[in-house]
């Protein structure tokens, strides 16, 4: 049974119409209502709130105790009902085992984790390396099983290997590999007519906020511009290679944001003073990197 308790503020000293108490709302069930009325004879139905009003300053504590007793009585009944539902319509799958409860073992999948976390009373058992689901939650598990099983099959090692093999032969994968190799070179085309200041966090069209360390003077091959830097392939400037690094958190915090959004000419040259929203995102990422670095340092003997 799902019961919701809403606390009312005690306004007894301020208004004769408002009394201390709590509202209790739960799905209608005749036997539950009878037990509730027996436990709270002074409770009154509030049609506007669609809930029972229980008066008194201790109403919340009394409702909590009653709810705990109801749960002790209701859960065994719900488990028995779930066992009957499983016997009538069982899930036949290599990923599911029925014992004292239901146990779900699948390859790692974010989709599976999201689905299992949404099932009431389901929890991860580290010792068994499985999700444990009580029979009272069988209906919800059955409702989500198609998604869970499909995600598990997609993440089987052989299936992942097969998809990876297909991806490696695709033009999209090869293009991504080329882009990754280009990023590792830590170079960026800079217009010779408008070079950026060095060692200052600046926004770029390709790599986010970086700090340029030097300008090599080496002319950029037009083929590289067309392949990796389409903003610089418009022919508005002559470009040379510049070297860059990721700025530190302290540098990002000390950087003042631009007062306006960059214009077309600034974006076409490939760099500009970062805006406040761009700085906030970069600072957030830099803080995450800093926390991971500190955690690694503490774990290293």
Topology, element by element:
Elements: E1 4-8, E2 21-25, H1 30-39, E3 44-46, E4 51-55, H2 59-88, E5 96-98, E6 102-104, H3 110-117, E7 123-125, E8 130-133, H4 138-154, H5 157-168, H6 171-184, E9 187-191, E10 201-204, E11 208-219, H7 222-228, E12 239-245, H8 249-254, H9 264-269, E13 271-272, H10 276-299
Antiparallel strand pairs: 1-2, 2-4, 3-4, 5-6, 6-8, 7-8, 9-12, 10-11, 10-13, 11-12
Folded structure, characterized:
The strands form 3 sheets. The chain has a 5-stranded antiparallel β-sheet. A 4-stranded antiparallel β-sheet has the order 1-2-4-3, with helices on one face. Strands 5-6-8-7 form a 4-stranded antiparallel β-sheet, with no helix packed on it. It is elongated. By secondary structure, it is α+β, with helices and mostly antiparallel strands. The chain folds into 3 domains: 4-80, no CATH class; 89-157, no CATH class; 186-299, no CATH class. The chain has helices at residues 30-39, 59-88, 110-117, 138-154, 157-168, 171-184, 222-228, 249-254, 264-269, 276-299, and strands at 4-8, 21-25, 44-46, 51-55, 96-98, 102-104, 123-125, 130-133, 187-191, 201-204, 208-219, 239-245, 271-272. The chain is built from 10 helices and 13 strands.
For this entry, give a set of tags.
301 residues, 13 strands, alpha+beta, single chain, elongated, 3 domains, five-stranded antiparallel beta sheet
């Amino acid at each position: 049974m799902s019961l919701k308790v809403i606390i009312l503020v005690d306004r007894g000293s301020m208004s004769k119409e408002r009394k201390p108490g709590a509202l209790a709302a739960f799905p209608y069930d005749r036997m539950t209502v009878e037990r509730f009325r027996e436990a709270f004879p002074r409770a009154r139905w509030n049609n506007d709130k669609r809930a029972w009003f229980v008066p008194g300053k201790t109403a919340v504590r009394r409702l909590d105790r009653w709810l705990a007793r109801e749960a002790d009585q209701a859960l065994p009944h719900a488990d028995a009902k779930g066992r009957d539902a499983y016997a009538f319509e069982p899930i036949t799958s290599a990923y599911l085992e029925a014992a004292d409860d239901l146990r779900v073992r699948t390859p790692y999948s974010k989709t599976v984790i999201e689905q299992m976390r949404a099932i009431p009373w389901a929890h991860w058992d580290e010792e068994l390396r499985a999700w444990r689901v009580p029979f009272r939650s069988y209906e919800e598990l059955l409702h989500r099983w198609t998604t869970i099983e499909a995600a598990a099959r997609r993440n089987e090692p052989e299936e992942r290997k097969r998809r990876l093999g297909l991806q490696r032969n695709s033009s999209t994968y090869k293009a991504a590999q080329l882009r990754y190799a280009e990023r590792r070179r830590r170079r960026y085309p800079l217009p010779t007519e408008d070079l950026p200041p060095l060692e200052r966090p600046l926004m770029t069209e390709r790599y986010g906020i970086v700090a340029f360390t030097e300008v090599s003077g080496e002319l950029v091959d037009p083929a590289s511009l067309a392949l990796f830097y389409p903003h610089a392939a418009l022919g508005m400037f002559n470009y040379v290679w510049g070297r860059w690094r990721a700025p530190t958190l302290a540098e990002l915090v000390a950087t003042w944001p631009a007062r306006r959004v960059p214009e077309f000419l600034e974006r076409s040259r490939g760099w500009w003073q970062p805006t406040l929203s761009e700085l906030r995102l970069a600072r957030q990422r830099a803080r995450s990197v800093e926390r991971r670095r500190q955690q690694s340092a503490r774990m290293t003997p």
